[in-house]
Each structure stands twice: as C-alpha cells, then as structure tokens.
# Entry
Amino acid sequence: MREREHILVFHFDENLVNRLHNKRVVVITSDFEKVHHICKLVNDRHNSLHCLVIHHKGSLASIPFNENWRGIPMAIFANEMGPFKEMMAKLQLMRSLSTRIFLSSANKANFTNLHILASLGIDCGISFDENNIDWEAMNDLMTYAVYSKVNHASVEPFQFVTQAYEPSRFTEFSSVYFDNPQTYLHIDKDENIALNSKDLKQGNFIAKGLDVLPGIYGNEKFVESLHAWQSFFLKENGCAYCQAWRICLGKFSESYDKNPGCRQFFIDLMEGADHFRALQHKNKRKELWQP
Amino acid sequence: MATIIFKPTEKCNSNCIYCDVVVKKQPKTMSFELLEHIFKNIDEYLKAKPQERIQLVWHGGEPLLLGEDYFLKAAEMQDKYCPETKHRIQHAIQSNLTLLNQNFINIFRRMGIDQIGTSFEPIANMRGPGAKRDSLAYNTQFMKGINLLEQNNIGWGFIYVVTKKALARPLDIFFYLSNLKLTGSFMLNPVLVYGEDKENIGITSEEYADFLGAIFPQWWKYRDRYPIVNPFKMFTENLVENKLTTGCEDTGMCAYGHVYIGPSGEASQCGRAGDWEIISYGNINERSLIDIMQDEQREQFIKRNDVLLAGECKDCPFWEFCHGGCPLDSFIQTKSFMHRTNRCEGKKLFLEKYFFPITGIRLEDKYGKDNKKNN
Amino acid sequence: MANILLTQQCVRSCPYCFAKKHMADSEPDDILTWDNLIYIADLMEHSGEMGASLLGGEPTLHPQFVDFVMYLLERRFHVNVFTSGIMGEKMFNEAERVLSGISPDRLSFVCNVNNPDKSSFSELENVRRFLKSFGHLTTAGFNIYKPDFNFDFIFQYVNEFGLRRHLRLGIAAPIPGKHNLYIPTDKMKVMANTLINYLPVLERLKIKAGFDCGFPLCIFTEEQIGKLYKHNAGHLSFGCGPAIDIGPDMTVWGCFPLSNIHKKSIYEFDSMRDIRNYYMDIHHKVRIEVAGIFEACDDCVYREEMLCMGGCLAHAYNHFYNEAENVRFREIYQ
# Structure
C-alpha cells in the first residue's frame, strides 16, 4: 500500500492549529462566524485546508451564506432544508460557493430535499444516521443520482461510489465523510489520534502526539485497522456473504438485523456503478499520441 | 512442460474434513538425502531433454511445516546440482498459508515463486486443527497469511471444495469467496471422496451441477466483477470465445506430462494417484526420473483417448475440453481407466440446464447439427 | 407543452366541465408530490420541452403551488397556469408576493372565467382580486357550452385589470358516456354565428380570440373563415390532437374528455415524444373508424389535408358509447 501523509481531522482549536505546520487539515466547527478566522489561522501556519466542516443544528435555509465564502471548500451538515422560498433566495449564492450540503437520513423529508437540491444544481449528500435509514427512500434518491438523464448536481456518497468503483478493489465511501483511516486521521486538542470520528468520540485512540504521525504506517493498531474488514470473514453469516460487500464493507452490520434494507440498496448501487463504468468505457475517446 | 507434484511431507497442521492425506496416521517427511537425490535426477532429466522445462509443485500435507531451513536447503541444492538447468526449473507451492511469515516469503522469492495456490472454506468446523477443527483460529491465521502475500505483491488463487454442507447456500458461498478475493482467481471443485463417506460430505454430479447452476446466472450477468471463476471461465472460453483451455483432469494429455513424488520417493501419476495409491511408477531411489517419466503404464492414458473417442465419448461435442474427465476418477468408479468419469454427466447437465440457456449459445451454432466442430 | 395536474380537486362546479368525471373518480388527497414534479420536469427537459402548464382541478389548491412554480421557473421552464383565480387568502398573499413580479415571458396565467350571472358573489370577488394582481400575466379563457353564449363581461375584465389582449376560446366537449353540458354537433353553426358576431367588438378592443382544440372548420361559412383569418392574421387552427395530461398519480392520458381511455403510467414511456406518439396512434385509429363529428368529414378534403381534424375526438367516442356497447375495436376504447 502506498504510504502518504494523512489529512488531519479535528474540531477547531486555536492552540492545536498553531501547533500544526505544513499539514492538510479538515477543521470542524459549528460557528459560521469563525469561518474566516479559521481559514486565516490555517493558512498562516502554511497548512492546507482540505475542507471546513460545519455542523449546523438548524435548517439549510437559516444558514447565513456569505459571498466571502467563495473559494473555501466547505461541507455543511444541516438537519433539514427549511422553507423552500427561503432556500431559493440563497440559491444563486449557494451555487457560487464550493460547498456541499449534507442532510441527515434521520429526517425522511430530507430524501426529497436532496432530490430538490441536486435538481437545482446544489451539490449535496446524505448523512447516514445508522439508527434511522429508510432504505427505499435512499434507493429512490440513488436511482435519481445515478440514472437521471438530465444534468443535475452530484449527490454523495453515490457520486463517489460510481466514480471510484472498480470491481477489483474495495470502494471505501467513508472518505466522503472524512472517516477513511487510509486517508484521514482524527485528532483532538490533546493530540490523541484516532482512526475515525466515532473512535475519537469514544476515546479509542491509536497513538498520541503529532510527532508519531510520520511513522503511523508502522503503528500496530493502524496496520490492524487496514485489515479490520477481515473480521467479517471470520463469521458464518453476515456482511461477508453479501453481494455488495465490496462497496459497503459492513458499515451497517450493526443495524442489519433490525433494518436489512441495506443489502438491496447496495446491490442496486453497485449495479448503478457498473452502469456508470460501462458508460465511461463506451464514451472513452482514444488516446492520441502526444508530440 | 513436465509437472512434478512434489510431496516432501504428509504432515499437516489442519484436519480438513475431505483430506485424503491427513488420514494417514504416520505422516512421513522427505529426508535431505532424498531431496538431494531428486535434484540430481531433475538435472539429469533436463540435460537429456534440452527443450524441456519442469514445474516443481510443492504439496503436502502442509509444506510450510518443513520449516524455513528446508526450503533454504532446497534452494541451495538446486544451485549446487542444477547449475546449468535451474533456469528451466519453475517452483510453485500449494499451502494453507497459516504458517506463512516474511522469511518464507523471502525464500520463495529466491526460488522464483511469485504466486501461491491455496484453498479456503467459510463454513465453520470443516477445516482447522484438532478433532473439532477450530476454523476460527485457522481462518484468522489464513487471513494473516494473505495479508502478508499482498503486502509482498505475491499473487494467490484458491480452490473451494464443494461439499454437501455447501449445497444449501450456493450464492452465499459464491459471494463470500468473490468478496474474499476481488480479483477473482478461484475454482469451485467438487469434493472427491475415496472410499467410505464417513463425514457425509460427498455430492453427486447432479448436485454439483445444480450448485454451479445456482451461481452461474449471477456470474454470467456480472462477469466483469468476477473475472476468473472456474469452471465458468473455462466453459466460457471454450464455448463462447473459442479458446481451448482446460484443467489438468480434462486435457487428456497427462500421460507423459505429470508425475508424483512422495516423501519416501514413491512415484505415481499425480497427487491423487499417489494419495490413493492407484498406480505406481516405482521409487525414485531405484529408478531415474527419466525412466519414471517414460514408464510404459503411461501408455494406457494415451490409449484411453482412443477408446473413449471410439466408444463412450463418440460424437460428444465437449470432448475437446473434457476428454472423458480424469482417468483416476474413472478408475475409482469402474476399476478401469478406460471409461469416462461420471462427472461427465454433471458437466453435461450443467451445460444443458444452465450454461446454454443462460448464455444463449446454441450448441448447433458452434458444432453443427451433427455435433461436428464447424471449424 | 404537457399539462401537469397538481391536484384533482376544484373550487367550482362548472356545468360544462369535462374534467368532472376524472375528478369524481380521484382521491381528494391526490396531489402531486415534489419527487414526482421533479421526475416530470426531468422527463420534459430530457425531451426538450421547456413549457409546463399547471392545471387541476384548481392548481392553486395545492399547498406547494407557489413553491412548484418557483421551482419550475428556476429550472428555466416557461410556466403557464390554468386557474379559476379563486383561492384562499393565504395562498393568494403568498402568490402575489412571490409571483406577481415575474416577467410575462416566463410566467403566464389562463384564467377560465364564467359569466358573472352564473357565479356567486364570493367567487366573483376572488376572481377580481386575482385579476387585479395578476392581470398583466393573464389571458382570459372562456368555454363555450351554449350556442347562444355571451362573454361581454370579459371585455370589462380586460379593460379594468389590464389582461392580455388575447382570449382563449374553448368548446365544451362531451365526456363519453356522461352527461355534461356541451355543444351538440347540430348546434355548432349557431355557435359559430354567435362567435362571428363578436369579431367587430374584439377588433375594436384589439383583443385576439384564439381557438382551443376541437373547433371544426365547416361550422363556419367561407366568408366567416375569411373574417377569422383576417382577425388572427392568418393564425387559425381547427385542430384536435393529444394534449398530454399528467396526473398527480403519475398517470397520463391523451386529453381530459378522454381521461378514462387508455390511461397509462408515465413510467412506461422514455420521453414526451413517446407519450405523444402513443396517443396520436390511438387517435388515428379512432379517426379511421370515425373521421369526424359530421358525416361529411369522411370525404372532406380539408380533413385529408389536415387543415381541420374533424372536430373533437370526444364526440367520436361518445357516438359509440351512446349508440351501442363497445363491441367494435374494443382495444381502441379500453
């Protein structure tokens, strides 16, 4: 596996940012007022802002979008879309920003909201609430995102899966949510390092200290995490036996018993990815020699 | 290329439910003296046949139980006794991977081994150490083994042995296996039970055909996802793509190309022939490899082709990639090599009930109404 | 341009209404959902059709009516709304706030008005309120269901509310097998005379009268056709063809009077063209059997040259419904 420097994901802490230098970072906040301050701090230390993640407890329509956010890569997680007219008033501005809007699957109306947003040219995505997923609605949204014959904005994680999908390898769509330990490591203000946001929250650290980062590929727990998927293959039943394993990797194994709709959904998504791939091959232009 | 199924040890660290080797109470291991003698014989053989190559397939039991030193010594012996012919010796190995470590990998690299054959079983308590076959411990080690292979860019492919216990869930098994190795490279082989079926794992040809048939529609529809799954790929290549490819039991050409050498030097036709003691070509301690490879008993495997073509396999459209199946299976079933195996029926059933309807291939388009090849 | 039904319910009960049966058969809660609106918009865009007509029942009864219009406008559709102008206060206020300032080349209304003598006070008040705010975007629509009709009141509306100087005239069609008010074929010439008598007034007020589908050419004399030709600067139409309606339940049909016949699911088609071709094919099969509403249509040269389609197809269907059971060409009617 190719070793590359990880992107660090953390909740905004000024002291932590000041200790980072020449790093690629994903900074999380819930304060819109801090957007520029965070960007300035990150840049001042010669770090590169991979994405600014904003968790907003309210609706999309209530977000104070700002022209000055142009060029800032942002992912905004909101609870719902809010009143359509209020969202429409901000549509032009939203389109001009480098922002992806995530709405939670916990609110069933959000599947329609994402449908609306994507059809209006707003890049968006579903944020999975594991305890609360209507897989049929998810499938409808995915069908639109993958098969629609008219132009629309992308919907994650469907875009990621269809574009990254390669039958001969796993497709790890947790990258969309900055949770893939092959690319992202989560760190807190005390420099405790975890493999993903859930582990960080639960205190399951693999190491501590910024100085260990260059050698992280030698960290036993890190290396174990790369093969963690194999634990599914040691069971007699479960996700390893699923046709769509290679694009899901057991993410919904814990909720499967109560809500087994994930299987059909991911099978359909994989079929969509095959379809996309076939189209790409069909439309591929020949590669002409270059002088 | 001549293939030597080389079994330097019958010892194994697993107790696989279908294994014919593990039942041996006193497993033997080849001495270094015999190993040395074998390399000398290989050198002699290759010098006598300047155009020939040899593939030496390390088998067991579990060959890694021989230990790292054994393989190192083998590599040294090859260098010492085959200095001019070693470039025509190709090593391969079949292992359960549970004992693999980085040292072995380094030695295998030195021996020119860049891929390893193995087998796998997801159903619990079918393989593993001890009487209860602790498959969890076994499979955990297996996973570590494949991790090591992949970290070192060594290829691997595996066989899945279809037993009675798998018949209830063919698609589950198929998805599991294809998830385990996303690039494909596995074979679905029926279990071969020689003698009494104490574990009740044997399957009929029809059951095997139906097992394959339950999986085939999925494979056919999504074959880009599952590139190398046999026998599907083999049938497709032969019947759809007009490429002739076969497994060793279907070539009809194993007469002078294969030999088995066991831990005491005993020679036979191939691995199964040696395990089941069906045919003996003597012992390499007393006969040269050249003589063993030319044993007149091999002639009956040539004759078998003629006998079958004139009789049981006359006008069979699948002859070219079947040849009446493995002569050893024929012997087990009929006590004679001169019959086709009963696996033929299973193959035909699979092709007629599943393969042709699903693929839309018509036999007469390929072979004409009288089943003669069109080209 | 496809007709998209936002709702099946209406605020009036017009005696000529040819959507009556359809609405009576529909669920009151049956309104178009957001997901289905997007699907329809995508289908139309994919088909290159960027004009959407919103209908009902009464489309403004849909709780998201204004949002839907805004959405379609944002998707660059031209939106034309067929309405009675009668809506609740909240909906009116919202519509006025959001839509009244939209340019007429993006949004238009057709307000189907009835004679004030036949309308209640509150209906009239509603219509006047609507026209006051949206008159500049609105064309008046009038459905003729009696031969001796009168639409003088429309001139009052045009002058008072600045309506667009165009009048959309429809001819009430029969619902096959049902009893709504419509112009019987033997009274059509009388209706034609009444209409021609309005031409001088229309011209004085610079209002152009255009025909909706279903008017047959031969109910006018040659002189009358000449007058109509001059009135409309040569734009005369005596057509009858599939006017695709899409219901809130995602069914489609060829036109409202025929909404019960060959209703299909929109999902059975890949494009609007496919839908149109499907219904054109059915209409064509009926026309082979019954060329037009008059016997003379069978040999009419203007029909052959497609200057006139032979009047409304609903009359042809009605002919068979009323005369006998559907024993012939059942597949055309079922």
Remarks:
- Chain A has one domain: 1-283.
- Residues 1-283 of chain A form one domain.
- The radius of gyration of chain A is 20 Å.
